[in-house]
Design brief:
Elements: H1 5-9, H2 13-23, H3 29-32, H4 37-46, H5 48-61, H6 65-79, H7 83-96, H8 102-112, H9 117-126, H10 132-141, H11 145-154, H12 160-169, H13 171-190
Helix pairs in contact: 5-6, 6-8, 7-8, 8-9, 9-10, 10-11, 10-12, 11-13, 12-13
């Protein structure tokens, strides 16, 4: 399930501990004694090689886009800039480009590519990885409603669930879109 980028990046201490316990072969009690993010970061940095190895092993063994994405977020949080992490990013980029669903391509690339989400969506749309409804949906999830509006103007407006989601997220733009669509339909009928 695609989640908002900024909500994903706002990690809690409990989620970080859960991740470290997930990748650890043996339960490490010392993680539980970290009561602040800074303590946990210090602990991981003191055992950097050990946890880097475990994190790399974990992300390689993960199945499913959601699990890979969650592992990638934590890997980048704790170890971004490490040579091994940069190599994994290259592998994940190639792997993501093989996905059949454009949303899955976006889900991984948004953490790897050094660009804003709107630009990435635009590039994936122009390259054919995303259709117009997928591009609109992703923009709604990322709370980029003006951009979603622009994609929806180009769509057939036949996806009721997407339109309901847009209406719930950006009612003013939804009504503007419906008025525009009604005007265009009348214009087409007058020339028919």
């Amino acid at each position: 399930m695609l989640d908002n980028y900024f909500k994903l990046m706002n990690m809690r201490l409990e989620e970080m501990k859960e991740y470290l316990h997930h990748i650890e072969d043996n339960y490490d009690e010392n993680i539980d004694f970290c009561f602040m993010v800074s303590q946990l970061n210090d602990y991981v940095n003191n055992h950097r090689e050990h946890y880097l190895h475990l994190a790399l092993k974990s992300i390689i063994n993960e199945k499913g886009v959601d699990a890979i994405e969650k592992n990638l977020i934590m890997l980048l949080y704790f170890f971004n800039g490490e040579k091994e992490v940069e190599q994994v990013k290259i592998i994940l980029k190639k792997m993501a480009m093989q996905y059949h669903k454009g949303i899955h391509v976006y889900q991984i690339l948004r953490h790897i590519m050094n660009m804003d989400n709107v630009s990435l969506i635009h590039i994936l749309f122009n390259k054919g990885y995303l259709n117009v409804n997928e591009a609109a949906f992703i923009n709604i999830v990322e709370e980029k409603y003006e951009e979603a509006f622009e994609y929806l103007k180009e769509s057939e407006l036949d996806n009721e669930a997407l339109l309901d989601y847009f209406c719930a997220s950006a009612p003013r733009l939804y009504h503007q879109l419906m008025r525009r669509n009604k005007t265009n339909a009348l214009y087409r009928l007058s020339f028919a």
